[in-house]
Amino acid sequence: MEKALFGAGCFWGVEDFFRQVPGVAAAVSGYAGGVVDHPTYRQVCSDTTGHAEVVEVTFDPARVTYATMVDLFFKMHNPTTRNRQGPDVGSQYRSAIFTHDEAQARIATERRDAAQSSGRFKSPIVTVIEPARPFWPAEEHHQRYFEKHGGSCHVSYADVANS
Q1: How many folded domains does the chain comprise?
Q2: 37 within domain boundaries
Q3: Residue among 63, 62, 53, 68 at smallest CA distance from 104
Q4: Is residue 66 part of a domain?
């Protein structure tokens, strides 16, 4: 199993999306990229800790490659809006890929560049790609939020997989 760490706006929808991907064993909402240990949602939303809302995805590389995961990431959100996704605004909602090694950094950069040159986006991609710092799981009530409370995100795996 391998891990990937993606920030693409509110983690509820990102987690729900990646849970639908064949080969994904787990998706956990949390925080990464900041300077505070064990941050809370309230701290992260204050836009002072440097953290992004992220999802840590555990996947089987024999069933889904890291490159495919990155391609899905670029299709499931708008990577051209800085520090926002839809109505959510702030650096905690930035588009980010936190990489665990040099191979992930190379693949993420290659796939970002391919997405940019695809002509699909009218504006430049602003996704940051940087080495992963500690991942802190979000509070329990944020985990599997849509399963527990209903609702859904604007994007589904089926929509993206068929695009």
Answers
A1: 1
A2: yes
A3: 68
A4: yes
Asked if 128 and 83 count as a contact pair (C-beta separation under 8 A), the reply is no
Q: Is residue 132 part of a domain?
A: yes
Reported as a single tens digit per residue, the pLDDT across 106-162 is 999 999 999 999 999 999 999 999 999 999 999 998 898 888 887 766 666 556 666
Task: Give the DSSP H or E segment for 137.
Answer: strand 136-137
Whether 93 maps to a domain, the answer reads: yes
Give the gyration radius of the chain's Cα atoms: 14
Instruction: Return the CATH number at 48.
Output: 3.30.1060.10
Helices (H), the chain: 11-19, 41-45, 66-76, 102-117, 145-149, 157-161
Full residue range of the structural domain in which residue 144 is found: 2-156
Taking only the tens place, the pLDDT of each residue in 22-47 is 999 999 999 999 999 999 999 999 98
pTM over 0.85: yes
| Residue numbers annotated as active site | 10
Q: Round to whole Å and give the CA distance between 163 and 161.
A: 6
Residue found under tokens 């665990």 = 100
Tokens 């040099």: give the residue: 102
